[in-house]
Automatic annotation (TrEMBL):
NCBIfam families noted in UniProt: HEQRo_perm_3TM
Name of the molecule in the record: Amino acid ABC transporter permease
Species whose genome carries this gene: Microbacterium mcarthurae
UniProt KW keywords: Amino-acid transport, Cell membrane, Membrane, Transmembrane, Transmembrane helix, Transport
Location in or out of the cell: Cell membrane
SUPFAM superfamilies per the UniProt record, alphabetical: MetI-like (SSF161098)
Length: 218
């Protein structure tokens, strides 16, 4: 425990960095993913095309390259000075935009589980596409996509370590800082693993709780 108690300042900063990346990136991914997912099932060909292009282009690009584009290529174009806060914000954008593609596909798969007759009945009543999606389809789709959606967010949590290679403080970078203080790198990595396992178990518990609460009756 000495490696933690003797370096609480670094561990706390790293944990906060990971949680900020996870929650902020997850919020961005959820909002953007819902929009793109709706575009993927839209009756408008242009919307479907844009949604399909976004998912295909971003999802098939390595996350490391997405980080390179946001953290190193984007700041000069925008005239930004690469400070710690700017790097963190750009890292959140990279994680959110990348993860949104997986959220969109999970949403699309959930939409496909809703009987098409319900959407047709809603449109027959005069509801617009947006109303059909927000009032009829998405509430039912969310209940069926809880397991794949939680898998996406578990992957997001682990992907936060990629930010360590771009000068963003998080649990993935804690080994470098503690090595400078003479701590054993292997022990540090073991503790990082323990923390990630604990966080993933917490997300798994949340998944089971949501599934039990919103289980679809068969």
């Amino acid at each position: 425990m000495g490696v933690i108690t003797d370096n609480l300042d670094i561990w706390s900063e790293a944990l906060v960095g990971t949680l900020v990346l996870f929650f902020a990136g997850g919020a961005l991914a959820l909002v953007l993913g819902i929009i793109v997912g709706a575009m993927r099932v839209s009756p408008v060909p242009i919307a479907r095309g844009v949604g399909t292009f976004y998912v295909s282009a971003i999802r098939n690009t390595p996350l490391t390259l997405v980080f390179f584009a946001f953290v190193f290529a984007l700041p000069p174009l925008l005239g930004l000075r690469l400070t710690g806060d700017v790097s963190l914000t750009l890292g959140i954008c990279a994680l959110g935009i990348y993860t949104a593609t997986y959220v969109a596909e999970a949403i699309r798969s959930g939409v496909n589980t809703v009987p098409i007759g319900q959407a047709e009945a809603a449109r027959a009543l005069g509801l617009t596409f947006g109303q059909v999606m927000s009032l009829i389809v998405l509430p039912q789709a969310f209940r069926s996509v809880i397991p794949p959606m939680m898998s996406v967010f578990i992957a997001l949590l682990k992907n936060t370590t990629v930010a360590a290679g771009f000068s963003i403080v998080n649990l993935g970078s804690v080994r470098n800082y503690l090595s400078e203080r003479g701590e054993n790198a292997f022990v540090v990595i073991l503790w990082v693993m323990v923390i990630f396992v604990a966080l993933v178990l917490l997300l798994s518990w949340l998944q089971r709780s949501l599934e039990n609460r919103w289980r679809v009756a068969r």
